[in-house]
Amino acid sequence: MSTTSPVRSRLSNPVPAEWHGPPGTIDPLDMATEQLRAVAERMGLEQNTFNMLAHFERTLKVAFPVRMDDGTIRIFEGYRVLHNTNRGPGKGGIRFHHDVTLNEVSAMAMLMTWKCALVDIPFGGAKGGVRCDVSAMSRNELERLTRRYTFEISPVIGPEIDIPAPDLNTSEQIMAWMMDTYSMGRGRTVLGVVTGKPITLGGSHGRRQSTARGCLVVILMALEKLGMSPAGARLVIQGFGNVGMNAALIAAREYGMSVVGAGDHKTSFCNPRGLDVAAMAEHAQRHGSLEGFTGDAESVTADELLLLDCDVLVPAAIAEQITVINAGRVSARVIAEAANGPTTPEADAVLNDRGILVLPDILANAGGVTVSYFEWVQDLQSFFWSEEQVNNQLRAIMSNAFDRVWSLAEKEKCDLRTAALMLGVNTIARAAELRGLYP
Ligand code: NAD
C-alpha cells in the first residue's frame, strides 16, 4: 500500500481577511451610528424610525481584476453603499485610498444623507471607494481600475439612482472615465451619472473650488459671530489637494487671510507672516505634492502643523486627525472640518470644553455636494450656468444652512455638530414618515 505524501500547494490564499483599517483607529461606522443614536435620543425619535435610519438601503461589495503594466493581474476590492433615498437618488464621492474599508464608506454614506438634508438638496446619502495605492499606479493602470470598478457598480448607479462624485484621490479625469464607461454600456452619453467632471464634459463652473468656497462662507460667518475680522485671520490647512489647496488660494486671494501653515501627506510648512500659497499651489500641481517646496517657509512635522498658533484650523485631508492626544493642545479658535470625520468624538468633547468652535463636516464641507447638485441639474437640463450664478447660489445655500445650525444650537444650548445633525436627521425622519411604508 502506498502512502501519499502531502502535496505542498503552489497557491497562497488569495482572499485576505476583511480589512478594518489601520490598527488603533476608531471604527467610523460605530462613530456615525453613535452620533445618530445620540441625536435621535435627544430628538425623541421612535425606535422604529431610529432602526430605519441606522440601516443601509443597499451595500455592494465588488472584487475585480486589473491587468497591471507589467502583465500581472491584481484583484482590487471596492464598494458602493447607498444609505437612504427617502428624498431622492443617492449622492456621494468615490475615494481611492489604501485604507478604504466597507465601514468607512458606509459611515460616510450615512453622513452624506444628513449633509444633503441639511443643505436641503433632493438627494440621499451614498459613498464608494476602492482600496488601492494610487501613488504606486501608472495613469493607464488607474484608468483600467476606474473603468472596471465603474462597470462593476454600473447596475446600481445612474442619474436617477445614485450619482458618484470625486473624493480622496479621484480627480475630474477619473470622473470623465466613469462617465464614459457608464455611457458606453448605455449606448448614449449620460452626463448626469457622475458630477465633478471636466467643464467640457458637462461639468459645472465652480465645482472644483466649491467645497473650499463653501467652507470659507461658513468660516467667515463664524468669525463674524465671534467678533473676529476675516482680514488677516491666520489659517492652518492640513491637506493640500482639491479642498485644502483651493481653500488656501481663496482665503488669501479673496478674503485677505493669512495661511500660516499648510501640509500634505508628505510634508508640512509654516510661516507666521503668511505662506506664499500661490507658489505652493503651483509646486503641488506640478509635482503632485508639497514635497520639495523651497519657498519662504519653515518645515514642521505633521503633528506640529495641527498645533500651530492660528485663528482657524482647516483639516482637509483624512479622518481622525484631531484626537484626545492632540485636542488639548490645538491653539485655533475655530476648527472648520473640510475633511469628513477629522475629529474623534473624544476630541470633540475636549474641544467643546476648551471653547473651541467646531464647524462640523456636514456643514463645513457641504459646498461640494451643493455644486454637484447644480452640476446634475445643469446636465439634466443641458443648460449651463455662469460661475457667478453658481457661486451666488452656493453662498445663499451655505449661509442659510449656517444660520439654521447656529440658531438651533443657541435654542438647544448644544454644539454646532449636534445642531447640524439634528436638522439633517429631522428632515429625513419627517420624509420617511410622510412616505410611509411600502407595501
Ligand atoms: P485630494 O485627494 O484632492 O487631496 C487630499 C490631500 O490630503 C492631499 O494633499 C494629500 O496629500 C493629503 N493627505 C492625505 N493623507 C494625509 C495625511 N495623513 N496627513 C496630511 N495630509 C494628508 O482630496 P480632496 O478632494 O481634497 O478631499 C480632502 C477631504 O475633503 C476628504 O476628507 C474628503 O472626503 C473631503 N471632501 C472632499 C470634497 C470634494 O469635493 N473633493 C467634498 C466634501 C468633502
Explain this structure.
The strands form two sheets. The chain has a seven-stranded mixed β-sheet with strand order 9-8-7-6-10-11-12, with helices on both faces. Helix 3 (102-118) links the parallel strand 3 (90-97) and strand 4. The protein is 45% helix and 16% strand. It has helices at 28-43, 47-54, 102-118, 139-153, 172-186, 207-225, 242-255, 277-287, 302-307, 345-353, 361-364, 366-381, 387-412, 416-435, and strands spanning 58-67, 73-84, 90-97, 124-131, 162-166, 234-238, 258-263, 268-270, 298-300, 312-315, 334-336, 357-359. The chain is globular, with a radius of gyration of 22 Å. The relative contact order is 0.13. With 439 residues, the chain is an alpha/beta fold. Among the domains are: 57-201, Rossmann fold (3-Layer(aba) Sandwich); 210-359, Rossmann fold, CATH 3.40.50.720. Helix 6 packs across helix 7 (242-255). The chain is built from 14 helices and twelve strands. The structure holds nicotinamide-adenine-dinucleotide. Nicotinamide-adenine-dinucleotide binds at residues 166-169, 211, 238-244, 263-265, 289, 302, 316-318, 338-340, 365, 368.
